[in-house]
Amino acid sequence: MRLRGLIACLAWCATLAWCAADVTGKWKGVMGESGRDVVFQLRSEGSRVSGTMSGPNGEPRPITQGELSGENIALTVASEWQGNPVKLLVKGKVAGGEMRVTVESEGGDWSTELVLKKE
């Protein structure tokens, strides 16, 4: 009985990884009111996502944690603001060549919506 449950669980997990969107590549968008270009350079391996997000001056900021589950994406980006470290939380959905995400500071003091297009 336990073996059947284990096999079903493994099949379900494999299906989720197989159905996950392919986010590998370059994604570009515009940051809210600032109008600043934002670039995500992503690589996905199954449900894991790694890469970078461009900072205020275009410098790459590392994605320290990234997960893809079906069309849902969640990233943690190590950034900084005025010399102070800031953890950005990126959450949203991927549909084909478009990604709609919310980017917010870890404490929730700031957030913005982004629509990213895959190049």
Descriptive labels:
single chain, 119 residues, alpha+beta, Lipocalin, eight-stranded antiparallel β-barrel, 8 strands, globular
Reported for the largest beta sheet, the result is: 8 strands, antiparallel, barrel
Class computed from helices, strands and strand pairing: alpha+beta
Q: How many strands in all? A: 8
Low-confidence spans: 12-18
Mind telling me the CATH class?
Mainly Beta
Tell me which oligomeric state these chains represent.
single chain
Widest sheet: strand ordering: 1-2-3-4-5-6-7-8
Which architecture does the CATH hierarchy give at level 2? Beta Barrel
Order of helices and strands: HEEEEEEEE
- Please tell me the total number of domains: 1
How would you describe the overall organization of this protein?
- The chain is of the alpha+beta class and 119 residues long.
- The chain has one domain (2-118): Lipocalin.
- It has one helix at 2-19; strands at 25-31, 36-45, 48-54, 60-69, 72-81, 84-95, 98-105, 111-118.
Strand-helix topology:
Layout: H1 2-19, E1 25-31, E2 36-45, E3 48-54, E4 60-69, E5 72-81, E6 84-95, E7 98-105, E8 111-118
Antiparallel strand pairs: 1-2, 1-8, 2-3, 3-4, 4-5, 5-6, 6-7, 7-8
Give a short synopsis of this structure.
The chain is an alpha+beta fold. It contains one helix and eight strands.
